[in-house]
Specification:
The protein is α/β, with parallel strands linked by helices and about 450 residues long. It has helices at about 60, 65-70, 85-95, 110-120, 135-140, 165-170, 180-185, 190-200, 215-220, 240-255, 265-275, 285-295, 330-340, 345-355, 365-370, 380-390, 400-415, 420-435; strands at about 15-20, 20-25, 45-55, 75-80, 105-110, 155-165, 210, 280-285, 305, 315-320, 355, 370-375. Helices cover about 40% and strands about 15% of the residues.
């Protein structure tokens, strides 16, 4: 996930990691650059343009400056688009025209399957340059073509945990210790809803168990190998067991008023966090710092983080760095990608911006292994996310995963906010999806 001004495909927060404790500064967006992909700078240096979206954490971690110090003949210029939904169509246009591309190009996980299946010939094969064995298995496979080419190096991932308000749980008579909370939902997302029903019985006035049932839906689906497409690229979302399960649980949560029904990243969601009316949020690694930013100082120490429901973890978000073949400095760009996605640099990004590494070698480095979030009652997030990452299944991705998920989420929001009946909402979702994916 990347922070976007509108929420977009995904969002995330920014923070600084001091020694072993993550402490958030203001939510940051990496700045945009108007630079062209020059062959060389005015001083004769090779200029590498990195195009990405939202926040990759390289600016916060000072990695571009460090790389330039290590390579005096290189100048790195970052060109960032705030909203990934604006970024991706532009990237497709650039790939089609063969012009305007960066030397290094970011691709979001919800787009990688489409890029692998339809644009792989536009990108450099990185297989001989990066050690794919260092990445969590499913991350490397996401960017691998059928004939074995690796067109993207993994940056971050989004293992899902559960963020919860300790003070609200205590008032509702629920366990507050993170291990006890994990035990209460160990049976899966059904247990999560049961906990929600217990919360509702004694809930502090004006509060809700969860922010959005659509977020829970995404957690359910993302913890399964089979999601929206089958291995042959056929859309199966209508019959997918994980989609059906997630939909039914979301409909149940909406009917029982366990959710406040605030679409994530939109203003009502931010207000709900600021006003303290939400007791739990499905929490991929990058989400915790969004919560911290919008909840503010009044709720410091009142939030905590536990393992996610069930024995199988889920992944929500993550990106890749690619090297277009059309670049003027493919060799140098490939070396930059290799360095940025090495364990030491991924650990530095986690320390500076809270984005969890896809490079599993980084998990044993101090900045990750000892990483804690002070705001969340010193939750040992480095250890929690690393454990979650071990059980994330190798999911089958499809070219329009993002469009399908977003459409279903909108209809879940309609069930929550407008009282739309589940059957009517499902019909509306499938009709819109069928039109969108053809």
């Amino acid at each position: 996930m990347r922070i976007t001004r509108t929420g977009g495909v995904r969002g995330r927060g920014a923070a600084a990691l001091t020694t072993s404790v993550l402490t958030a500064s203001a939510l940051l967006l990496t700045g945009c650059s108007d630079s062209d992909s020059d062959a060389s700078g005015s001083d004769g240096k090779i200029v590498l343009k990195v195009t990405d979206y939202g926040q990759f954490g390289y600016k916060e971690a000072g990695l571009f400056e460090k790389y330039q110090q290590l390579h005096p003949n290189i100048e790195v210029k970052e060109e960032t688009t705030a909203d990934e939904q604006d970024y991706y169509p532009k990237l497709l246009q650039q790939l089609n025209s063969g012009s305007g591309l960066g030397d290094v190009v970011g691709v979001e996980v919800a787009r990688i399957k489409e890029v692998v299946d339809t644009r792989a010939d536009k990108f450099t094969d990185l297989k001989g340059s990066i050690d794919t064995g260092q990445w969590v298995d499913w991350k490397a496979k996401q960017a691998t073509t059928k004939d074995g080419k690796v067109i993207g190096a993994g940056t971050d991932i989004g293992p899902i945990s559960l963020c919860y308000r300790r003070d609200l749980f205590e008032k509702a008579g629920l366990p507050t210790d993170r291990e006890k909370v994990a035990e209460a939902i160990a049976g899966g997302w059904e247990d999560y809803l049961k906990l929600g029903e217990q919360y509702k019985e004694k809930a502090p006035k004006g509060t809700y168990f969860m922010d959005s049932a659509s977020a829970m839906f995404n957690g359910v689906v993302s913890s399964s190998e089979s999601q929206y497409y089958d291995a042959d690229g056929k859309p199966i979302y209508k019959d997918s067991p994980s989609v059906q399960k997630g939909w039914n649980l979301a409909a149940d949560a909406a009917a029982k008023k366990l959710s406040q029904g605030t679409p994530q990243f939109q203003d009502p969601w931010k207000s709900a966090l600021r006003n303290g009316t939400v007791a739990t949020v499905v929490c991929p690694a990058w989400m915790a710092l969004q919560i911290q930013n919008y909840s503010g100082n009044d709720f410091a120490g009142k939030w905590d983080i536990s393992r996610a429901p069930g024995a199988t973890a889920a992944n929500w978000g993550g990106s890749f760095l690619t090297v277009p073949k059309s670049g003027k400095h493919v060799k140098e760009a490939t070396e930059l990608v290799k360095w940025l996605t090495a364990p030491e640099q991924q650990a530095a990004v986690f320390k500076a911006a809270g984005l969890f590494p896809s490079n599993k070698v980084a998990y044993d480095l101090p900045d990750v292994k000892n990483g804690k979030l002070e705001y969340f009652n010193n939750a040992p997030v480095g250890q929690i996310y690393a454990e979650e990452a071990k059980t994330i299944p190798v999911a089958v991705l499809g070219p329009k995963d993002g469009a399908i998920k977003d459409t279903i989420s909108r209809e879940i929001n309609n069930m929550e906010q407008r009282g739309t009946k589940p059957d009517k909402a499902w019909d509306a979702a499938t009709e819109a999806i069928d039109k969108a994916i053809g």
